[in-house]
Amino acid sequence: MTDYITLLKSNDLKATIQRTSILKVIEEVGHISIDDIYESVKEQHPTLSLATIYKNIILMQQHNVIIEVPMNGEKSKYELKKNDHIHLICQSCGMIQDQHLTAQTEQTLVLENFKLNRVQINLYGLCSECQS
């Protein structure tokens, strides 16, 4: 389990109960929408507003604590910042699977005259269950 207080402080953010609760929910699920984060967090903190969730998600995204995963035709999902990886996104059920970058993939991403800071590749298709 991640030490959320250290994670937040190392990214120049205060470790508030709201932020640590949001991070805990994200880590438990893996990839989750803001609406689902709100539903989970409000069970423990009923006075927390959706606006507070949005504000904290945006702030933690700006400080590289979490990453937005754009969904094709749906609301984005969020995950904790990890090493660069590829997302395999099922267009039928919405399942997201992380696929680590291979050395060959990383070599392919080396671009001439362009300094790459981070990689986020989203591949859309059908998972094995939805193909059946």
Polypeptide structure, described:
The protein has helices spanning 4-10, 17-29, 34-44, 50-62, 103-108, 128-131, and strands at 32-33, 66-69, 77-80, 85-90, 96-100, 120-125. By secondary structure, it is an alpha+beta fold. It has two domains: 4-79, Winged helix-like DNA-binding domain superfamily/Winged helix DNA-binding domain (Arc Repressor Mutant, subunit A, Orthogonal Bundle); 83-131, 2-Layer Sandwich (Dna Ligase, domain 1). The strands form two sheets. The protein has a three-stranded antiparallel sheet with strand order 1-3-2. It has a three-stranded mixed sheet with strand order 5-4-6, with no helix packed on it. Helix 2 crosses helix 3 (34-44) and helix 3 (34-44) packs across helix 4. The mean pLDDT is 89.
Spell out the key features of this protein.
alpha+beta, 41% helix, 6 helices, 6 strands, 3-stranded antiparallel β-sheet, globular, Dna Ligase, domain 1, single chain, 3-stranded mixed β-sheet, 20% strand, 132 residues, Arc Repressor Mutant, subunit A, 2 domains
CATH topology of the largest domain: Arc Repressor Mutant, subunit A
- How many individual helices? 6
Strand order of the largest sheet: 1-3-2
Task: Kindly report the oligomeric state of this protein.
Answer: single chain
Mean pLDDT: 89
Question: How does the overall form come out from the CA principal axes?
Answer: globular
* Total discrete domains: 2
Number of beta strands: 6
CATH class of the largest domain reads Mainly Alpha
Radius of gyration: 16 Å
CATH architecture of the largest domain: Orthogonal Bundle
